[in-house]
Amino acid sequence: MKKYIVPLFLFLLLGVVIYFGYEAFSSIYNSLDSKIMNVLIKTMICVFIAGIALCALVYDLIYSSTLVSLESYKRELEKESINKTESSSRVKVLESKIEVLEKALDDALKNG
Question: pTM of the predicted model, to two decimals?
Fold first, then answer.
């Protein structure tokens, strides 16, 4: 569900920008001559493309930094998991050695 919130928000934001851009364009359209209008249209297209490129750049920066931190966090969790597994196996080995030594001590006391 969370992965759909950001694209939905961006889509709604794009819709709002297009709506207000169209409203501004239609109100300006009637008062300008054709040369100025052509320059205005080209400028608006360039600004729109630059805005989308800037949005994509910022999103990529945020996504890549989040991905790097997520990978480092996964590595830390794997290291901790390996350390816990090694510790538990060491404890089991020591417990079995203690049991063997206890049996040997009991046998030595009975025979002695």
Answer: 0.42
